[in-house]
UniProtKB/TrEMBL annotation:
<feature type="transmembrane region" description="Helical">
    <location>
        <begin position="385"/>
        <end position="405"/>
    </location>
</feature>
<dbReference type="GO" id="GO:0098797">
    <property type="term" value="C:plasma membrane protein complex"/>
</dbReference>
<keyword id="KW-1133">Transmembrane helix</keyword>
<keyword id="KW-1003">Cell membrane</keyword>
<keyword id="KW-0812">Transmembrane</keyword>
<comment type="similarity">
    <text>Belongs to the ABC-4 integral membrane protein family. LolC/E subfamily.</text>
</comment>
<feature type="transmembrane region" description="Helical">
    <location>
        <begin position="26"/>
        <end position="52"/>
    </location>
</feature>
<keyword id="KW-0449">Lipoprotein</keyword>
<dbReference type="InterPro" id="IPR003838">
    <property type="entry name" value="ABC3_permease_C"/>
</dbReference>
<protein>
    <submittedName>
        <fullName>Lipoprotein-releasing ABC transporter permease subunit</fullName>
    </submittedName>
</protein>
<dbReference type="Pfam" id="PF02687">
    <property type="entry name" value="FtsX"/>
</dbReference>
<feature type="domain" description="ABC3 transporter permease C-terminal">
    <location>
        <begin position="279"/>
        <end position="412"/>
    </location>
</feature>
<dbReference type="GO" id="GO:0042953">
    <property type="term" value="P:lipoprotein transport"/>
</dbReference>
<dbReference type="Pfam" id="PF12704">
    <property type="entry name" value="MacB_PCD"/>
</dbReference>
<dbReference type="InterPro" id="IPR011925">
    <property type="entry name" value="LolCE_TM"/>
</dbReference>
<keyword id="KW-0472">Membrane</keyword>
<dbReference type="GO" id="GO:0044874">
    <property type="term" value="P:lipoprotein localization to outer membrane"/>
</dbReference>
Length: 419
């Protein structure tokens, strides 16, 4: 089989056939370390990018699947909310709409008190705009409408703080004050039976409670918190859709908010963390790739005599250059491909591995009162894999240029003078 001379010698130097002397053994050892460093760097980069993709996915699909993209409010509670919901839902940029009444309240059980966001919902429409139904039993919404024994659905974080479970009772307290004069009045208190405790695995478990529309209205008293929640086609265009809808509504006390105001900081933090961590790991790959420089420099020093003999036998400068580029390219290619395979395997199993480690150690590394979700998500994107593997190989190839140029400049007479 025809083998180009440069590639044949370069592959032989890289490990196919090595002499057994000490110098060759040291070169082999350093070359192996360079390859291992590149494998670890590429694999780590793929896993980190997959984890950051997972956090981004959980924000978009889970957290913003439960919470709305846009909410349109009116300062006056005397609004035909079903008619307004139908009007907003007919917009081509809106996928679904549901009326809601939001109240900031305190939940109390015995001596334990915790703040929470109470959402009064219409069970018939809330499932269209929120995925909260995926975490609840079908009969839970019906329990909210029980007039004799009003029900409330709590997140697991709230339930744990209060020490309650399904079937227990608690009180919801809404402080009352005049927004104009600031005069304080007696707080409104209502008793509720816990219909269900839901676990979404997100930060919403620590703050969200659901009651019926009428119960939320009674808790709000004269203070309006009523509005219409919307789910739009393009999440990133939610603010623009909200502003357009407000201009199309009749003049009044309409105002709105979108997900970027409530969870925008979280989204920006995820994106910034992804960029910073990606940059740091890319530097690790670059360091591992440029370890090839030290490997090839030692090979050039070790092979001075061989290079001189090849030159005297007629090898051109270009052939000598390509010999050492071939060696570095092999190290880079093997390191990047193996690292890519390890990284893909790690990205696909990291969630289960961390969950298993938590189970063995009895420790929860991520908690939803600190992190967006209470588990380590991962989403592998093949475009990221190609980018990282390609970057690792290209950096390794660039690292070969300096030692290869030095090898091509070896003068046969000077190298053989002392032989």
């Amino acid at each position: 089989m025809f083998k180009p001379l440069s590639a044949f010698i370069g592959l032989r130097y890289a490990g196919a056939q090595r002499r057994g002397d000490d110098s060759s053994g040291l070169v082999s050892f350093i070359s192996g370390l360079s390859m291992i460093g590149l494998v670890l760097g590429v694999a780590l980069m793929i896993v980190v990018m997959s984890v950051m993709n997972g956090f981004d996915r959980e924000l978009r699909e889970r957290i913003l699947g439960i919470m709305p993209h846009v909410t349109i409010y009116n300062a006056s509670p005397d609004v035909d909310w079903p008619q307004l919901r139908q009007q907003l839902a007919s917009d081509p940029e809106v996928l679904s709409a549901a009326e809601v009444w939001q109240v900031n309240a305190l939940a109390r059980r015995g001596a334990e008190v915790t703040p929470l966001l109470v959402q009064g919902v219409n069970p018939e429409t809330i499932a269209e705009v929120s995925s909260i139904g995926d975490f609840l039993k079908k009969e839970s919404f019906a329990a909210l409408l029980n007039l004799s024994e009003p029900g409330v659905v709590l997140g697991t974080g709230i339930a744990e703080k209060l020490g309650v479970e399904a079937g227990d009772y608690l009180s919801l307290i809404v402080p009352n004050s005049n927004s104009v004069t600031g005069a304080r009045r007696a707080a409104r208190v209502a008793g509720f039976r816990v219909a269900e405790v839901f676990h979404s695995g997100t930060v919403l478990d620590q703050s969200l409670a659901l009651v019926s529309w009428q119960q939320a209205k009674a808790l709000a008293g004269g203070n309006s918190g009523a509005g219409v929640q919307l789910r739009v086609k393009e999440m990133l265009e939610a603010n623009w859709v909200m502003r357009r809808l407000l201009t199309e509504l009749p003049r009044g006390n309409f105002y709105g908010t979108d997900w970027s105001r409530t969870h925008g900081n979280l989204y920006q933090a995820i994106q910034m963390s992804r960029n910073l961590v990606g940059l740091l790991v890319l530097l690790i790959i670059a360091i591992a790739a440029f370890n090839v420089v030290s490997t090839l420099v030692m090979v050039v020093i070790d092979k001075h005599t061989d290079i001189a003999i090849l030159r005297t036998m007629g090898a051109s400068t270009r052939q000598i250059l390509l010999t050492f580029v071939s060696q570095g390219a092999l190290v880079g290619l093997v390191g990047a491909v193996v690292g890519g395979a390890v990284g893909v395997l790690g990205a696909l199993t990291i969630t289960d591995l961390v969950a298993g480690l938590e189970s063995i150690l009895g420790i929860q590394f991520l908690k939803s009162d600190v992190y967006p979700v209470d588990y380590l998500p991962s989403e592998l994107m093949w475009g990221d894999v190609v980018l990282v593997v390609g970057a690792g190989f290209v950096l390794s190839l660039l690292a070969t240029l300096y030692p290869a140029l030095q090898a091509s400049r070896v003068q046969p007479a000077a190298a053989l003078r002392n032989e």
